[in-house]
Amino acid sequence: MSTILDTFVAPPCHDEIEILYQDEHLLLINKPSGLLSLSGKNPQNLDSVHYRLVQIYPGCTLVHRLDFGTSGLMVVARNKAINAALCQQFSQRAVTKVYSALLCGHLKQDDGVIDAAIVKDPALFPLMSISAISGKPARSRFRVIERFNQLLKDGRSLPLTRVQLMPETGRTHQLRLHCQHLGHPIWGCDLYGGREWPGTEQTSRLMLHASELRLVHPISHEQINVCHASPF
C-alpha cells in the first residue's frame, strides 16, 4: 500500500472571495483562482475558502469544492441541516454545473460527450487516471464556443478553443482529465498536459472557471440560477 505524501504548498492568494448572495441558510460565492477550497493538512496551507468564510460566518461548511486553480461559483451551507439538504441535491445529480474553459488546440467536434471512468492511484498522487476496468463512471459534455489563436508576448501564436463543460458526475479532476483524454488539455493545467504545448509554459493560472450553477433553495424551494462570466 502506497503512502500519500502531499508536498504541495500553496502560494499566498491576495484575491478576495466575492459574496454574490447570502441569506441565513446559504452563501453563493465566486472563488478566486489560486485559493484552496479547504485548508490542507500542511499548516502552511491554512488559507482557504472555508478558513476565510468561517471567520465571518461561524458554522458554515462547504457543500462541494473547486480545485486550487479553478475560479468561480460555489454554494456554501450556513449550518449542518442545509449542508445535508444541498449534498443530497449534488448526490442525486439535481444540481447543474457549467464551466468555461480554454483548451489547447482547435477541437474538431463542435460538441460531444466524454465517457471515461476515473480511478485514484495513490502511487501517482495527486494524479487521477482513466481506467475502464477499475475506474468509477465519469461523464462530461462539452460545447465549443469559439476557436481562435492567442498571440503570446514572445510573438508565438497559440491555437485555443473556448468551450462550455458540463460535468454529469463529480469525480476528482474530472474536467481536467477528460479534456486531456480528448487530446486538448485545459490551458494552464499543470497536472494534465496544459503546460506542455508550445507557448503554454508560463501561463498565470488554470483556465477553468465555474460559470453557472443551478440548484433548488433547500428552504424556499425556489430555483436558484446564478451565472458569473469567465475572467479569461
Automatic annotation (TrEMBL):
Q: From its record, what is one biological process in GO terms? A: enzyme-directed rRNA pseudouridine synthesis
What UniProt keywords apply to this chain's record, in alphabetical order?
Isomerase
SUPFAM superfamilies registered for this protein in UniProt: Pseudouridine synthase (SSF55120)
The record's listing under InterPro entries reads:
PsdUridine_synth_cat_dom_sf (IPR020103), PsdUridine_synth_RluA-like_CS (IPR006224), PsdUridine_synth_RsuA/RluA (IPR006145), RluA_PseudoU_synthase (IPR050188)
Cited Pfam families: PseudoU_synth_2 (PF00849)
Question: Mind telling me which Gene3D superfamilies this protein's record contains?
Answer: Pseudouridine synthase (3.30.2350.10)
EC number(s): the record gives 5.4.99.28
Similarity comment text for this entry: Belongs to the pseudouridine synthase RluA family.
Give the protein's recorded name.
23S rRNA/tRNA pseudouridine synthase A
